[in-house]
Specification:
Blueprint (H helix, E strand, L loop, with lengths): L2 H6 L4 E2 L3 H19 L5 H11 L2 E2 L3 E3 L4 E2 L5 E3 L3 E3 L4 E3 L4 E3 L3 E3 L4 E3 L1 E2 L4 H5 L2 E4 L2 E3 L4 E2 L4 E2 L4 E2 L3 E3 L4 E2 L7 E4 L4 E5 L10
Parallel strand pairs: 2-5, 3-6, 4-7, 5-8, 6-9, 7-10, 8-13, 9-14, 10-15, 13-16, 14-17, 15-18, 17-19
Antiparallel strand pairs: 1-12, 11-12, 19-20
Amino acid sequence: MTELEKLEAGLEYCYDDPEVVARKTNAIRQCRAYNAIDDEDFAAQYAYLKQMLGSVGEKVWIGKTFNCDNGKNIHIGSNFTGNFNLTILDIREVRIGDNVMIGPNTLITTVNHPLKPMGRREHLGIAKPVKIGNDVWIGGNVTILPGVAIGNNVVIGAGAVVTKDIPDNSLALGVPARVVREIANDVQSSDT
């Protein structure tokens, strides 16, 4: 298997392999172009996101500066706000539902590295997808780690580090994030 095939299969892969690096370099170029679009030209920003990302719903805005590792692995639903300095390391797929707000300086990462030094010396990575449901508010300065699934109608408090799945209808806070209470769902279930 090539390193890119290993990456896509969810196996350990070498992150400085030329094919893997080429994908990231392309994403860097695209992010630079997106971030250079006039701040007040929302139509051009939206059009570029539709071209750059895997899929984009209606009414999607991402503030500057936006960074990602691929772009095509990011799938965003409708009515989305990604505030300033959003970074999505989409080595693997990141799926974001409808009616989601993400606060500034947030990191969503699908990539991890070995705990043992030999694997790090060999530049190994392993990636797991991230899923974020509908009607989610993620506060500022949040970190979401690889493999995490966040349910529908969830609020993640500012500064939290999400290391494990968060169930529907939850408020999660802290480092590591933990559910502190249930949140009432006041929308029809067919809307979520």
